[in-house]
Amino acid sequence: MYRIEIQAETLSELAQRMVLMGAQLQRDGVTDESAEPEPKAKSKPAAKTKEKSAPSLSFEQDVTSRVLRLVKVKGKVAVTDILEGFGVSRASQVNESDWPALVEQLDEALA
Known about the structure:
The chain is mainly alpha-helical.
């Protein structure tokens, strides 16, 4: 069992902190009951491929901020509908390679 304490002034701040914590755990590779990070494979060709692709996005700055803004403006259902298109129920479950498409859809919904 894990005990987690999160302090926040507002519900929005609490939601943001929880999303950030989940994203950090996912990036660290924590996936099982032991809460030990999985070893990360280092692959130089993959890094070169990423450099040639579109500019990298930050989950916190680009994805989370838009998700929280859309929830505030149009409600959770608007975000859920977009995430279902990616076959997930949480933004942190979207593959990093799909972040640009997710950000684009979130921006369209916010427009």
